[in-house]
Write a structure and sequence with these properties.
Layout lengths: L8 H30 L2 E2 L11 E2 L3 H20 L11 H25 L3 H18 L6 E3 L6 E3 L2 H21 L6 H19 L7 H20 L8 H19 L5 H10 L1 H16 L12 H7 L4 H22 L4 H22 L8 H10 L1 H12 L1
Antiparallel strand pairs: 1-2, 3-4
Length: 390
C-alpha cells in the first residue's frame, strides 16, 4: 500500500480535506451535548426565531477541526517556503490566523454561555485583529479608486485603523446574518469557496497557502453543516459566527494586496449578502430615528419570513442571492474595465430593486420603484403632481 507521503499533493490534500470534514462531523454532535451541559443555549425571546432552547456553541467543532488540520497536519505536507509563492513555512504563515481566530472564538464561546456585554465582545475582536496586524502581512495598506482612479497609499497609522475596521466590519456582518438555521454557515461556504477560486486563479501575487487554507475552512464548515441546516440540531452561536466572520475578513485581506480596483471590489461583492444587510440595517435604523446598532427584526431573513416564506425557503433564497454575488465577483475578474463598470452598475440597480421589493429599508421607502412608476404610470404622475401642488 502506497505511503501517504509518497502520493501526489493533490491526492494528499483531498484526503486532508475529507479528514477535516470528518473531524467536524464527529465533534458537532458531541458539542450538542456539551453545549446543553455548560449552558451555551439560545433561549426563545422576542428577537429570536427558535421556539425552544437550542445548543449554541457549534462553532467549537469548526474551530477545532480547522486548527488541528492547519497547525498539525498541513505543515507536514505543504513543505517549506517557496520564494516565488510565499515567504514563510506554512506553520509560520498560519499560526497567527489560528491565534487571532482563537481569541475571537473564545470571546464568542464565553458570550454563548454568560452573555458578554458589547464592549467586552468588541475588545476580544480588536485583540484578535491586532494579532493579525502585528504578526501577518494581512494589512489594508492602500486603496485603488475604482474605474481608473488613483492608488491611495495609506500611512502606517491609517493602515492599522483601516485593517482593524475591515476585520470588525466583516466579523460582525457575518454574525448579524446568523438568524436562521444554516444561514451564516451556508453563506460562509459560498463566500469562502468563491474566495478560494479567486485566490487560486486570479490573484496577480500568487500565494499557494491562501486557497489551501480557505478550502480547509470550507470543509470544516461542511462537516458541521448537516447538523445546522433546517431543522437545526445546534447553532453556530457567537463562537462560530464571530470566528467565521473573522476568518473571512482576514483571509480576504490578502486578496487586497493586489492593489487594483478588482482586488478591492471582489471581496466586497463576494460578501454582498452580509455587507448589504448590515449597511441597510444601519441606514434603516437611522431613518427610523433610532440607534444604528439597535437590534430589530427587519433584516433580510426577517423580511422574507414576513412575506410568507418558510425558514427553509428563506435560507435557500439567500443562498441564491449569495451565489449571484459570487458569480458577479468571478466574472468581474475576467471583465474589461468597461465591462466591469457596467457589471457593477447594473448589479447595484438589481440590488436596490431587491431591497425595495422585499422592504428591508421599510415598506414605504422605495425611491427607485417610485421613479419607475413616475416614468411609466400616467395616473401615478398625476397623483404626484397633485401632492406637490398641495
Amino acid at each position: 500500500m502506497q505511503n501517504i507521503t509518497e502520493m501526489p499533493f493533490t491526492v494528499k490534500y483531498i484526503i486532508i480535506l475529507l479528514v477535516t470534514a470528518i473531524i467536524a462531523l464527529i465533534l458537532t454532535p458531541i458539542m450538542v451535548v456539551v453545549s446543553r451541559k455548560i449552558g451555551a443555549v439560545d433561549n426563545p425571546n422576542a428577537r429570536r426565531i427558535n421556539t425552544k432552547p437550542m445548543p449554541s456553541a457549534g462553532g467549537v467543532a469548526i474551530f477545532v477541526a480547522f486548527s488541528v488540520i492547519t497547525l498539525f497536519v498541513l505543515p507536514r505536507f505543504v513543505g517549506l517556503a517557496n520564494s516565488k509563492l510565499v515567504d514563510a513555512t506554512y506553520f509560520r504563515y498560519i499560526w497567527p490566523f489560528v491565534l487571532g481566530g482563537g481569541i475571537v472564538a473564545l470571546t464568542g464561546f464565553i458570550d454563548d454561555i454568560v452573555e458578554l456585554g458589547a464592549k467586552a465582545k468588541l475588545f476580544g475582536q480588536i485583540l484578535g485583529a491586532c494579532v493579525i496586524w502585528f504578526f501577518t502581512h494581512s494589512h489594508l495598506d492602500n486603496f485603488k479608486v475604482p474605474f481608473g482612479g488613483p492608488l491611495l497609499e495609506f500611512p502606517t497609522w491609517l493602515s492599522f485603523l483601516a485593517t482593524i475596521f475591515w476585520i470588525l466590519a466583516i466579523t460582525n456582518a457575518v454574525n448579524l446574518i446568523d438568524g436562521l438555521d444554516g444561514l451564516a454557515s451556508g453563506v460562509s461556504i459560498i463566500s469562502l469557496t468563491t474566495m478560494g477560486l479567486v485566490a487560486y486563479f486570479f490573484l496577480k501575487t500568487p500565494n499557494v497557502y491562501l486557497p489551501i487554507t480557505i478550502f480547509v475552512l470550507v470543509f470544516a464548515i461542511a462537516g458541521f453543516f448537516p447538523f445546522n441546516f433546517n431543522p437545526a440540531l445546534i447553532y453556530l452561536g457567537d463562537t462560530g459566527a464571530l470566528f467565521l466572520g473573522f476568518m473571512i475578513a482576514v483571509l480576504s485581506l490578502q486578496g487586497l494586496k493586489n492593489a487594483t480596483a478588482v482586488a478591492v471590489l471582489t471581496p466586497m461583492i463576494i460578501l454582498g449578502v452580509p455587507l448589504t444587510d448590515t449597511v441597510v440595517a444601519m441606514i434603516r435604523r437611522k431613518l427610523n430615528g433610532g440607534s444604528m446598532v439597535q437590534a430589530d427584526k427587519m433584516h433580510l431573513h426577517h423580511r422574507l419570513l414576513n412575506l410568507g416564506l418558510t425558514q427553509h425557503a428563506a435560507v435557500l433564497v439567500i443562498y441564491g442571492i449569495a451565489s449571484i454575488f459570487s458569480f458577479v465577483a468571478l466574472i468581474l475578474n475576467v471583465s474589461s474595465r468597461w465591462g466591469g463598470t457596467f457589471l457593477i452598475f447594473f448589479s447595484l440597480i438589481g440590488l436596490e430593486v431587491l431591497i425595495e421589493l422585499i422592504g428591508v429599508l421599510g415598506e414605504d421607502r422605495t425611491p427607485l420603484l417610485n421613479l419607475v412608476k413616475l416614468v411609466g404610470n400616467a395616473e401615478y404622475r398625476q397623483e404626484v403632481k397633485k401632492k406637490n401642488k398641495k
